[in-house]
Design a protein that fits this description.
about 270 residues, alpha+beta, 5-stranded mixed beta sheet, 4-stranded antiparallel beta sheet, 13 strands
Length: about 270
């Protein structure tokens, strides 16, 4: 997700995240003394997989994977399992100083995933760490090496069921942005629904909030119109196309301008 659902979204989006999240499927694996839950979830940013590890002492840790990242991770699990199978029995006298036997890294937008096959006094295991580039705590799970194939197969089952129509969802939408002007706050939030990706622009003042929603297909045209106005407002009065100059066909005022039309707080342009 990124990915998605890890709780690192903008403040204007966090409060709505729990209400909009939907669980689509779950699998539970018992590997040695640990339980793992693989949950396919969906929120306004798209679909993702939450991997939760429950230790024998009840301690819980988790990471989040966009479906495309989960597919890449699944392929790495095959590679790590093959490498693990080629190793001989553990040799306490021949363990790397840091315990690492093999390492890989995955990068997905603002997230990095470190995959380390390690060995310690309790055996061999795959540690999967998730970090966020702009800071924040590192989260990780540790999969016993003997369970990597079982874990891969469970992940494959979920991907086969839910990634077939992944093109309909974009799992890693841009994060929300905020702008303060005078006594107003403007929030730009990106989301998606069954009609596609959209941008909601909210104007917030004390005891007042209004918003418009722009479908993704209109963003470029919306940007061009704003850019055109920015260019024209800088031109000297009387210049062609500038304030005081002649208006072209594409520059005619909106028919609602000057009608004192009041926004209802949820105007949609979709």
């Amino acid at each position: 997700m990124s990915d998605i659902g890890s709780g690192d979204e903008g403040s204007s989006s966090q409060s709505q995240q729990g209400q909009m999240e939907q669980e689509l499927a779950t699998k539970m694996l018992q590997i040695q003394s640990k339980r793992f839950y693989l949950d396919v979830k969906q929120n306004r940013r798209g679909r993702f997989i939450k991997v939760a590890e429950i230790g024998a002492d009840g301690r819980r840790s988790q990471i989040f994977l966009a479906l495309s990242t989960a597919a890449e991770f699944r392929d790495h699990l095959s590679t790590f399992s093959d490498y693990y199978s080629s190793l001989g029995p553990p040799n306490p006298d021949n363990v790397p100083e840091d315990g690492k036997l093999k390492s890989e890294m995955m990068i997905k937008d603002n997230r990095r995933y470190y995959l380390d096959l390690k060995e310690n006094s309790r055996g061999r295991f795959l540690r999967v760490s998730q970090t966020i580039t702009r800071g924040g705590p590192r989260s990780q799970v540790a999969i016993p090496a003997q369970g990597m194939i079982e874990f891969r197969d469970a992940l494959t089952d979920l991907l086969d069921e839910f990634s077939t129509d992944e093109h309909a969802y974009k799992p890693d939408l841009p994060e929300g942005r905020h702008m303060h002007v005078d006594n107003k706050n403007f929030y730009f939030d990106i989301g998606q629904n069954n009609r596609g990706v959209y941008m909601r622009i909210s104007e917030v003042k004390t005891n007042f909030r209004t918003a418009i929603t722009l479908p993704e297909k209109s963003w470029a045209r919306f940007r061009d119109i704003l850019s055109d106005y920015c260019d024209k407002i800088k031109q000297p009065a009387g210049a062609s196309g500038a304030p005081g100059g002649p208006l072209g066909v594409q520059d005619q005022p909106h028919p609602l301008v000057g009608n004192n039309t009041q926004q209802d707080g949820g105007t949609s342009l979709k």
